[in-house]
Amino acid sequence: MKKIILTIFVVLLSIQIPAQDLLDILDSETPKTDNIVSATFKGTRILNGHSIENRKDKELEFIISHRFGRINLGFDELFGLDKSNIRFALEYGVNNNLTVGLGRSSFEKTYDGFLKYSLLKQKTGSNSFPFAVSLFGSVAVKTLKDYDPADKRTFAESLFYVGQVLIAKKVSPSFSFQVTPTYVHRNTVRIAADPHDIFAVGLGTRMKLTKRVSFNSEYYFAFDQSKSIDARNSLAFGVDIETGGHVFQLILSNAITMIEKSFITENTGDFFAGDIHFGFNISRTF
Amino acid sequence: MKTIYTIIICFVFVTANNAQEKFLTKNGSISFFSSAVVKDFKADNNQVLSIIDTDSGKMAISILMKSFMFEKALMQEHFNENYVESDKFPKATFRGAIVDFESITDLETKVEVEGIITIHGVSKEIVISANMTRSEESIVLRGEFNVLLADYNIEIPRVVSKSIAKTIKVTFDFNHKPYNK
């Protein structure tokens, strides 16, 4: 009997329980935290329209956007470069979730102001959430005096409103998409048959080509359109190039305008007939 | 009955003999500094995990890259997205040992920590000098070392080469406490 006990004792002693790997201990001790998915898109715009991305806390961004004329205008117009619509804007992050912006487009001398609020974040980890949701609202004022002098437009009659729900998902580090239900209200329309309210839905994607370059596409489908113009849905393709504090976006779009109320409801370009506007967005963050 | 007791006692003795003394911290700090022509910047991480096995002098460190805090949120996003690619390589780790740990009797002494550091998926051998202060209740390790970004395939685009240093200074401060599992 004593022999058996001794044997067990010796065997137990000799089996050196292998020391648990120290890194495994650290893994098991790592606190479980929520991981907010960041950089679903590079910039605050997918191309023409807004992405769920906000300016960061107390950051001011200056954005210069250009859209040239249609490239199918030919050599005489230097493929559209003779004509351009420019928008300057200042956008500021009140905090990490709220961005305010003011812009001015040369097209129809339009001023616009917007608010964008990040409602829900996409998260991984213990409290995961599959997608991100932001809310967007803007007001635009058309100040071009294109009315009959006898029938002067009031300030209220020059207003346009846009509301959007931005729903985005970063599927993988290299692929993100966004679905954007949109409502546009116009206080003034050209003819009585034109709708004051237009619903639309946008679909945007981003595919990362390299660490700093991505390929984006964006399409807005409007459920109703103005009858007074040959309205078309907006389609755009482009690349984002990121360098330090800047994001450059090079864009081919069938819309010459860069604010929601215009490119969603007032666009007449036929992308596949060559009514394509070359353009760019340049942002500088301070 | 007696036999069973004896066996149990054997087990207890053997297990006690195998119990390893470990010291751990979950809020160690690591900071890094970049000093370049145009600007200087730093980032801090106060949630670093580090463990020392006092039987063997072995040591391991685990650093969550997303826990580095920058002065500007945009820098932090760029750091994670473009430089260290935190989605692909969420952690930097170190696995090694304090050289001649058993022979160290001084309470305060300079030590060398030798091992393999893994950043951005690239592993390299490294020797780091540190100051160690040891007592019954704690083991404190402090020190600094330099990291050449190119060694770890962290590319700096030419446009920002004046803003980001090629070599980053890293400082660390770990206060390990006894760890009982």
How would you describe what is shown here?
Chain A contains three helices and 14 strands. In chain A, a hairpin with a 4-residue loop joins strand 10 and strand 11. Chain A is elongated, with a radius of gyration of 27 Å. Chain A has 286 residues and is mainly beta. The model of chain A has no long low-confidence stretch (mean pLDDT 88). Chain A has one domain (33-285): monomeric porin ompg (Porin). Chain A has a twelve-stranded antiparallel β-barrel with strand order 2-3-4-5-7-8-9-10-11-12-13-14. A two-stranded antiparallel ribbon of chain A has the order 1-6. Chain B is α+β, with helices and mostly antiparallel strands. Chain B is built from two helices and nine strands, in the order H-E-E-E-E-H-E-E-E-E-E. In chain B, a hairpin with a 4-residue loop joins strand 2 and strand 3 (58-64). The mean pLDDT of chain B is 87. Chains A and B meet through helix 1 and helix 2 of A and helix 1, strand 1, strand 2, strand 3 and helix 2 of B.
Largest interface: A-B, 33 and 45 residues
Dominant shape of chain B? elongated
If you consult CATH, what is the topology of chain A? Porin
Question: How large, in whole angstroms, is the Cα Rg of chain B?
Answer: 20 Å
Regarding CATH, which class of chain A? Mainly Beta
Report the top-level CATH class of chain B: Mainly Beta
* Mean pLDDT level of chain A: 88
Number of helices of chain A: 3
Total count of domains of chain B: 1
Q: Spans of chain B of 5+ residues with little confidence (pLDDT < 50)?
A: none
Please state the second-level CATH architecture of chain B.
Answer: Beta Barrel
Strand order of the largest sheet of chain A: 2-3-4-5-7-8-9-10-11-12-13-14
Helix content of chain B: 10-25%
